[in-house]
Amino acid sequence: WWGWFPGVLGSVCFAAGGALECYHNKVWKCKCGDPCFWISVLNCMGGFLFLFAASCGMAGVEGELEQWMVNFVYLMGSIFFMFGAIIALYMWKGEHYGLAFISEINVKRTSTPKMDMILKTQA
Questions:
Q1: Percent of the chain topping pLDDT 90
Q2: Which among 16, 12, 40, 15 is positioned nearest to 26, based on CA atoms?
Q3: Contact in structure between 70 and 53 (CB atoms under 8 Å)
Q4: Separation between Cα atoms, residue 89 and residue 92, nearest integer Å
Q5: One-character DSSP codes across 93-122
């Protein structure tokens, strides 16, 4: 119990954070081309998969069932988090520093002749 309780507690926080991120970015409007949509969905799914795996571990699932209900589910949650992090890195590289958490500051820049000239002289 002492080994699994911190995992369940952390997973509850991850799942709640992912759910709040989905709520903040209004994923129910399904903006599938928006990276904020995918980061939110992937983080939420990863959090809930971690919660499921930790709950199964705390319940004492053993043997062959443990491989599928704990280890495999943790693997899938980790993969979801990894893809969410890759998309977040892509957004950060594009100077969208709000990422999926403060998506309002992720404004698209418009190119102006003066801006182009400044950027060319700096290069």
A1: 30
A2: 40
A3: yes
A4: 5
A5: HTT-TTTTTSGGG-PPPPP-HHHHHHHHHH
Phi, psi at 30, each rounded to 5°: 50, 65
Three-state DSSP class for 102?
Answer: coil
- Whose tokens are 């590289």? That residue is 93
What separation, in Å, do the N-terminal and C-terminal C-alpha atoms of the chain show? 59
Tell me how far apart the alpha carbons of residues 76 and 72 are, in angstroms, rounded to a whole number: 6
Q: How would you class 77 by CB atoms within 10 Å of its CB: exposed for 0-12, middle for 13-18, buried for 19 or more?
A: buried
pLDDT tens digit sequence for 23-79: 888 888 877 777 888 888 999 999 999 999 999 888 877 878 878 888 899 999 999
Whose structure tokens read 């998969």?
49
Higher pLDDT, 90 or 119: 90
**26: which 2 tokens?**
């209004």
